[in-house]
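Inputs:
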Amino acid sequence: MSGKFSAVITAVILALLCGAAHAEGPPVLVIKSADISPYDEAVEGFKKTCNCRVREVNLPDIDSGGIREIVSENRPGLILAVGVDALSLAVAVKGTPIVYSMVPTALLPEISGRNLSGVSMYITPEKYINAISELFPLLRRVGVVFDPAWSGPFIRDAERAAHKKGIELVLKQVGRPSEVISALHGLKNSVNLLWMIPDPTVVNPETFKYMLDISYQRHIPVFTFARKYVEIGAAAGLNSVPYDSGMEAGEIAAQLLTKGLPETPIRVGAKNVSLLVNRRILKKIGIAIPAEVGGRTVNVE
Amino acid sequence: MSNSPYGKSFGFRLFRTFSVIVMVFAIFFAIAVVSYQKRLVTGDLVKEGKMISILLGSSLKPWIFAENPAMLKDALKDIMEYRNVTFVTFYNARGESIYTGSRTSRPVEGPVFSPPDFARMVFAESDARYFHVDDLTNSIDIVSPVPMEAPSNAGDALYFSPGSSRQKEVTIGYIRVGISKDSLRKEEKAIIARVAFATFLGILAGLIILFISIRRVTVPLSALTEHVRLFGTGEVTENVPVTTDDEIGRLAAAFNTMSENIRRRDEEKALLQNRLLQSEKLESVGRLARGVAHDFNNILSTVQGSLFLIEKKFQLDGAMMRHVGQIQKSLARARALIQRIITFSRAQVIEKRLMELNSFIRRVSPALANIGDDNVNLAIALAGEDILVMGDPLQLEQLIINLVSNARDAMPEGGEIHVSTDTALINVKDAEKLPSLRPGGYAVIRVADTGGGIEEGTREKIFEPFFTTKENGKGTGLGLSIVYGVVEQHKGYIDVVSEKGRGTTFSVYLPLFEKKADSQDNSQ
């Protein structure tokens, strides 16, 4: 017992020493793409687990020259880039470890480097399919419009996951944004759920409005990938939780700060996601969700 | 027109000039109003077109974005029912036509846009430049871009709302709306009709007000002009009515004052001339009388002498003596008559001496009292101060007796005779009106009665010898002539004021005694 107690005490002391060492080490420069609430939440999560001193800057307030200046002045041990724009700017700083957060997966192939680690908002197709299956067990024909250039691998994984759950994906391929409306128009009579995937060719304000039109007219729920769409009319969706994403990024940062850059960059997707529903929309389009699932959802209106 | 009396009229010319001004202003105003109203109506049509364009752009954005002509055609059905919309054309972002819906088979008015045309059209986010508006002959052509928030292109916006920062917009196509001008034309006609009617009423009201205003100016002016004309011809007898306080009113008042002065001066002049005439006439008569009296006196002396010789040389019987006595009586009467004529004609030698007039009156007052009848009261009121004159007491006694006698005769039914004395100062101005007087101090003897007064036509003749209004045999007609002669010989003046039914007042002015005057008189 005393041996166990001694080990715990030792571990705590070591942890505190390590933490103190991080807190007293070089600061972490946090660059946010915008001054919006999800990014603030991610930064809070980052602070929670990083155990480091941070200095925050917002992109609208500073340009690339300003970033270089700040880096040369503060000599940060690590840069946290929150959002795509912040990451685009941060990769210009060479020799400093960069951890990203709140970045869509689709952009990552364009940015590479050993010093680049982080947590994307990528949610696996399985998670989407599982959520759709749980939330809408009776809706088996799911329409998806996608651009193979952006979402080909994602759709392949989605088809496999859907097959396992007995869901039929009705797919429409598009190559240009202007084709999306017609593709949706062609889908509206043959599906009972529209799945809006994070495909930049497909998603734009007009296509989303048209999806909502179809949703309200045909009583077809739209299942989406971000909170903001659920808030403005989609029936349900999965959402990468910014705070959790920040926490995961903080853990990676702490590891990099203590152990240095790994051989292989640490790049992970969203581990924790929340299932969002807009009960008002669901009620309007006359779709009920199982009671056992309802308790695990976050209502967004 | 200008030769007619109306054309020459100041009021007419004023009215004509102002009428032209009023009409020109009214017409310009009407044109401005019509133009303004047309702009408003055109502006409304343009607004309508913009609104339709915005609505179409907003509601059909997905189909414009998708470049789907079938859906656009379907969506346009309702809007094409609207009477003002003649056509709608949708273009994609490259400026290529997607679909055109038209209400009529008439070809679309205006240019056929090619893709580069859209590049030349500069659309900004402000309303003024957001639309390209062409005002064509039969329609208004409105072209507007269809904006859309830029696709997120895998940026953060795919997941998050951009916060306060402005989302970038891209143009996904264009909408061209043709708005018919048919309704504009109808509205224009209605506006022109309304404005023309209002202008007509305005001009009419303006002309009426103008006419009344000018009349208010010209009527007094015309009245004044007419009075001036009448005054020029001597026909005017009345003053010009002064109805206003303005320049014309003051002009009328000035004219009245001027005409009044001229009239008074004319009257005074006429009076003076009349007096001069009277004076000259009496002078002529006096001269004649003097000559006649002198010759007649000589004749009478001859007759008297001859009669005396007849009485001396011939023993006349009683009957003849009676005839001679009768002749002598007649001769005596003739001599008395001659004496009076001589007095009137100022041929009599007078003996002036200094006399106090009040004392003189007191002295002769018993004789005056005897003149009056029982029903005539004589009242004497003498001045409180002594009045010294140079006069012939006998002649002045004759003067006052004659005046009192005349007064008595003027009151056959009885009445009152007032005899009074006073002094008066005749200034230069008064003296001008009375040519026989010189400026200076005068003694005044007034004899006033309460009789019937003297007729207007009679007054001028009362000093003429042998003029009488009395019955035959009751007067010689020499009483007032003698008075006149005495006054003249005393370098005085006699004034007569008579009012019908209220009596007559004779005022005799005699120069007050002055040493200088005294010496001059004595020298004469």
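Chain B touches chain A at residues 61-63, 65-68, 71, 92, 148-156, 158-165, 172 (CB under 8 Å). Flag for discussion at group meeting.
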